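#structure-requests
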Amino acid sequence: MKIVVLAGGKSSEREVSMNSGSRIANALIAKGHQVLLIDLFNGISDSNNFDSAYEKYERKEYQYHVSEDIPNLEQCSGEEIGVNVLEICRTSDITFFALLGGIGENGKLQAIFDVYGIKYTGSDYQSSLLAMDKVIAKELMRFHDIPTADWTVVSDVDKIKDIRLPAVVKPIDNGSSIGISLVDSEQDIKKAIEEALKYSKGSRILVEDRIVGREFSAGVIGDQVLPVIELIPKSGFYDYRNKYQPGRTEEIVPAKITEDLTNKLKELALKAHQTLGLSVCSRTDFMIDKNDNIFVIEVNSLPAMTPTSLLPQEAEAVGIDFNNLCEFIVNESLKNY
């Protein structure tokens, strides 16, 4: 097949996306496909269809490194969608979304692709939007009896009141733990909200009750729930650096927990996936307190695919290697068409 792997963009997660996209492209090349990795923001200026772009820019292997620091996006001025991106994707068989955050994960790009009749991997625009907006997702989960931490929404940093401590402050529409702060005292709340606002597309900030305990994740591919994985950062919490720098977090899969707790986590991962209307793949993150109470933290409609990412590790635990996982996502997505 002719496959565009679309990555990068103007999201603060662009480096993670480019790393994921490089690995996905290499996997699909290894499976015998014609593959082009394209940065959503940069596009390709001198080709307006897949065949000519592939003839000029075919590569046997892609590489991209994730630095320790969150990318500075000041150089990314201009349109969200680069030159000829839609034209090249339109002339491919399918586009693999390796995008994280921004229009690639909040449903906007999915909606544009639908209008242009372009096939893509993953969930549709409606479910992508629901999963990306943490407040909407939490409201839906609470309505469907999926346990999630209590929360409030702050839109004015100077009118903060009734916030219970300890708390977690985070942007409503971002991922990779970017802009997240753990707050233990009142004097730190304003600073945490200002930090979250740097990475939010709007003015609303989510403030959750902080659940102290162990962190887990469980992925879904197709209709299969993958093994539960436990995350144990060697210092701090599971933040941007601990997620993507090798050796900073111990990842245990399958998680060493009781069968009953494992089953509950897997059932909730599938229920959250279905409640939000997701398809093809997702990953649900959990916290479990000292009394084994489970709380869903968030649901990811486009899980990252870096060397330290969780979905590939979970798939590997049941014998699905990375190359086959990527091809499975392509084939499962094509069923939508």
